[in-house]
Amino acid sequence: MKISASAITDVGRKREHNEDNYYSCPEHFLFAVADGMGGAAAGEVASALVAETIGITLPAALMSAEKPDELTDENLERLLAASIEKANFRIQEDIRRSPEKAGMGSTCVLMALREGKVHMAHVGDSRIYRLRNNVLTQLTEDHSWVNESLRNGLITAEEAVNHRFKNVITRAVGTKETVQVETQTKFSLPGDVYMMCSDGLMAGKVADSTIEEVLRKNFNDVNASARELINLANQGGGPDNITIIVIRVDETVTDPAFSPETPQVTRGSGKKAVLLALTGLLLLTAVGLVLFKILTFSPPPTPSMDEFADLTSEKNLMVSGKSIPSSSVEILVNGASATSIQTSSDGSWKAQIPLTADGQFSISARTVDASGNTSPESPVRIISRDTIPPAIESMKIHSPANNIVTGTDSLELSGSTEPNTTVQVMLDDISLKPLTVDEKGFFKGLVEIRGLGDGEHNIRIRPMDKAGNIPADFMVIPFEYDTEAPPLPDFITPSGDTVNTTSLTVRVKAREAGKVEIQLDSNPFKDAELEREDVFKMELFGLQEGREHTLRARSHDKAGNKSPGERVVTFTVYTTRPPAPKVDSPTQGGITRSPLKIMGTASPGSRITLLVDGKQAAMIPTTGEKITWEAEIQGIADGNHVLKAQSEYHGAISLFSDPITFTLDSIAPPIPVPNGGRSLLVSESPFKLSGTCEANARVFITNAAPGSKTFETQCSSSSEFQFGPVSLEEGKNKFYLRSEDMAGNSSAESIIMIVTLDTVPPAPPVLEKMKDFYLKTPVLLSGHADTDSTIIFLVKLDTGKDVRFETTVSHNGQLDPVSQNFPMGKHTLIYWAADEAGNESTRKTLPLKIIERLPATPYFPDMGKTVFLDSSGKARISGRSGPGDLISLSCGNTGSTSCQADDGGRFQLDMTLPIGQIKIEAFASLIDDPAIRSEKSTLELTVRMAESGRTSGNSADPAENSMLNGSSSWHVPRPSGEVDINSASAAEIATALDIPPAVAASIVAIRTKNGSFTGTSQTLDVPEMTNFYQSVRSYMKVSSTQKSTPSAENGQSLQNRIVRAPVINPGDSISSTIKATAGKTISSLYRFRPAGRGIYKFIFNGKGLKFEILTTNPITPEHITTVGKTGSSQMGTWDTSASSTLMPEAILIKITASTDNSGEVPFEIKTTYTSIGTGDGF
To answer: Helix, strand, coil shares of the chain as percentages rounded to 5?
Structure first.
């Protein structure tokens, strides 16, 4: 077979180092490409191991076949796969030696050409292509996620091109313990071109069509093909390493029966025929010579070859044997002549042969005699060279464990490593007999350690394969050799010669012990349990009352050495407890001082242990024959403590006494503090002294006068004390005051206290004259009294409650004025004076009347100038006053007539009147207090008899009279539109305002009588007025008084409209706009409903707008206030607190846009309200 081959690898444009490797051996027709992965140079290591392993194993394996027919397709594929599997094993071994390389691996494509066939094996996404008859075919299938998903129909070919998993491979050499290799065999023909490549070619965007074109174009130059493909990949970005091998089959031997193309033999003529004839003649001559030589001469004998090992790690092999004397022996390695050696006189020979690399070598020899005749080859002997040592990491130790402590004569050494090797063993620096590893990889043996000195030692082991390879390092097993006996253990419990229980926890302290055994009496020794470091315990049960028991303990250290002898202790069981001692002092909850004195009783002969706060504070020796005991303990801190006592009798321990909680207090109490200070002024004798001191302390007071005794009292738990009564002399009295706490500590010193007795009362105060009643305003009280006295006021409310307050008197005898609010009602004011000693003057009493409002002076807005008497001589009089007020009317000598106004302040009654010009006087009074009256008002009327067919009324005008009858109870509905009352008909007015037709007719009649409605406002708030007639009449009257000079805006007469104005309540805030027109004056109207008497404030924001407040007074729509003319912030105030007239039901807020405004002008109105006397606002 004849081939042409070229192999090139390139790092590419983006990578820093090349992780690709290849193997190219044209003389053996073997080629491979490996693409490493793993980073940190590990990928380069993996691909190098693949290439190196193939170069070591495959050529030797192919040459070792004894017969050519042994190399079947199946066997050749198996050899290729085995070489890749060997590479997988070597990568795994390298990872075990260097764990930081974990994850490294490689792809591999491997190709072997053999007599008309190509055998292939591959793992991963490196590829083999074939160009035959100018057609390119990919012979390998990528082991990648994208390719397998494409084959299974999971993704399309278009998706595969740029898929994010296109670089993910599903198989690799070295990443797992085993590897799956795909193999195949195909026929090979002369002219076939094979191209092997790593995926860097595809990453460089070189398409299959481009590969076909390059191989076809450079068919006669494989090196040019390889170089051009490398350049194309780099031109495509060169993102990965690129490796290319191009092989062209120039000549092969093929079985014609299987060859698709049998070469045709072309016959020649002329010179070619002559040449063929001469060639044939020469061949016949050569054949004759050979036959002559065969018939004339016989070959020398085959040399013998001595046995040698079939495995070695050496670089050279010494071969020896026997042949005929004075001949030459040719040594053949792998079928090729390696060296020749001259035999000695006895025919023996010896030669050294180099073994160039790891792998398998076939060794044979043949004799060449002096005539040049060659003997047949000796039988081939196979030797393998292996220089790779077993991995130390492959060793696993089963025993002994690291750092054991032992005192035995030997240690068992066992574990596992590579099968069929041996294990070198060293004890410290001494070599021991190696151990043999079986075919399963296990080894086991004893290491003699007897005679070692006590201390730390090491067993060192490492594997050695049959070739004698050993790793550089040993595996070390440290241990400690210890033959020294441990010390005897010591008993912790029981600690005495008696115990008080039949169940006992035995504790021993054993240093350097690995195990402790304890024996009770004659029972067998048992292992104790390790409780903590150096302490072992054992639970004993069923101990006998009153019997003496014996315990023995011995220890074993971790090396197995026993302590010398045993530790022995004896004890007797007493389980009957003595009674608990009794503590008599301190008492439960008691307080005492330092030093702490404790007393109590116990059984005679007992030993008492005292615990304060759980800690032993004292131990009292046995009491002998006494039953009482006492102790004094120093150093106990102040505070709360708990005391318990316990007695011991013959080793039996009582229960603790009931805990005594006590307080230790060694701090002197503070000096008592009398209420009112150390200097008191009192008005009575005897007097009671009170104050504060330490809780529960005793307080002592002693009169400084000769012969006086000391008084004692107990301070309460709330730190208060009181003495009394204590007799005093008029004037100054001197006392000493001290305290003593419950622990017996006395205050540091006594204090001197002066008590002055004053029994003369002050004069009663004189108040300024008070009013008969007060109108829901603060009542101001003032006057004069004795200096330095206190004036006390007590107001007894009519609700049954009392209000008490005080004021002082200045140095000039004047009371400091006091202002106080009271609820409405009839109350009683009691007042008196008190001096500093507590003496009080006589008490004085005054009535105190508080009213919510004054009655409103009656007025008569509904009355005309004339009234008509009905048949009984009465005329209806109507008017307004305050809500619920009692109205009194009188006319000359006709007597007085009364009625009550309704909740709206309206009233009416039929009154007997004389005919003619009369004057009616009226006043209002509060219904619940008639003495409080309003000012009088006067109504002048002309009284006539009613004409025939006419009912009583107050006007001669039929149109007006139709509105008077029952008009005060009308409710006018909310209008639904706007109407010009100067020109509209009665029907239009009734429809627009949704009012009765009769009322609309009355409006037209009034308009006809008085002229047009020309007033001061463009809009009129009709629906919210209770008396519709009043509104119309008031504007009508204004119109009649201004008829000669009607008001105008911008030269135009006002067009009077009746519209529904929006309602604003106290506390509301509104934001709106007014649509202004340049050159015109435009107004908007709002209704404001007052909540009662008080102060109303209006804050208006509207640039360039005018803000006015108008009343709906039935006489005239007067201006309450006009706020600004222009500007962005204005304020107006309406004060009704001082007004005695009837509050209107609504006032009008008028907002006007001047001629300078145009478009939508925004504005904002905020309202606040403060009621009379309460200060409340909205």
So the answer is: 15, 40, 45
Among 793, 828, 851, give the residue marking a domain's end: 851
Residues 73 and 193 in one domain: yes
Element (H, E) at 1032: helix 1028-1041
Q: How confident is the model at residue 1055 (pLDDT cuts 50, 70, 90)?
A: very low
pLDDT tens sequence across 531-577: 998 999 999 998 988 788 999 999 998 888 898 899 999 988 877 77
- Same domain for 160 and 244, yes or no, is yes
Backbone angles phi, psi at 999, to 5 degrees: -70, -40
Distance CA 113, CA 249 (A): 9
User: Of 329-333, 514-518, 970-974, which gets the smallest average pLDDT?
Assistant: 970-974
225 and 359 both lie in a single domain: no
In 3D space, the residue among 1133, 1086, 1132, 1151 whose CA is nearest the CA of residue 1112 turns out to be 1086
Reply yes or no on whether the pLDDT at 295 is more than 60: no
Please give the torsion angle defined by the CA atoms of residues 58, 63, 69 and 72, in that order, rounded to the nearest 10 degrees: 0
CATH label of the domain that carries residue 622: 2.60.40.10
In a domain, 421, yes or no: yes
Domain with 158, as residue range(s), is 2-251
Co-location of 337 and 426 in the same domain: no
Q: What is the pLDDT of residues 900-930, one digit of tens each?
A: 999 888 999 999 889 899 999 999 999 888 8
Cα within 13 Å of Cα(527), Cβ side: 7
CATH of the domain at 39: 3.60.40.10
In CATH, what number is assigned to the domain containing residue 938? 2.60.40.2470
pLDDT band at 1070 (very low <50, low <70, confident <90, very high): confident
Does residue 25 sit in the same domain as residue 152? yes
* Claim to verify: residue 131 and residue 243 sit in the same structural domain: yes
Q: Which of 502, 507, 659, 645 is nearest to 569 (CA)?
A: 507
Stated as kind and residue range, the H or E segment containing 1075 is: strand 1069-1076
Of the three residues 757, 780, 810, the one that is the final residue of a domain is 757
Confidence of residue 231 (pLDDT cuts 50, 70, 90): very high
The chain-wide mean pLDDT, for the chain, equals: 81
Looking at the domain assignment, is residue 293 inside a domain? no
Strand extents, DSSP E, 494-528 = 498-499, 504-509, 515-520, 526-527
Q: Specify whether the CB–CB gap between 834 and 761 falls below 8 A.
A: no
1142-1156 tens-digit pLDDT: 556 567 778 888 777
Displacement of CA 438 from its chain's centroid (Å)? 60
Whole-number Å distance between alpha carbons of 566 and 490: 10
CA–CA gap between residue 355 and residue 1012 (Å, rounded): 141
E strand or H helix at 109, and its extent?
strand 108-114
Query: Which comes out higher in pLDDT, residue 272 or 992?
Result: 992
Domain holding 1178: CATH number? 2.60.120.380
Give how many domains the chain has, as a whole number: 10
285 within domain boundaries:
no
Q: For residue 988, give the amino acid letter.
A: E
Q: Which residue has the higher pLDDT, 297 or 662?
A: 662
Cis peptide before 300 (omega within 30 of 0): no
Output b/e per residue, 939-961; b: 16+ Cβ within 10 A. bebebeeeeeeeebbbbbbebbb
pLDDT digit string (tens) for 684-737? 888 888 899 988 888 888 887 776 778 888 898 888 988 878 888 888 888 888
Co-location of 199 and 339 in the same domain = no
On whether both 708 and 827 belong to a single domain, the answer is no
pLDDT of the residue at 342? 92
Q: Are 1018 and 981 in contact (CB under 8 A)?
A: no
Lookup: tokens for 636: 């106990």
- The conformation of residue 100, written as its DSSP 8-state character, comes to G
- 142 part of a folded domain: yes
User: Which phi-psi region, left, alpha or beta, contains residue 739 (left: φ > 0; alpha: ψ -120 to 50)?
Assistant: beta
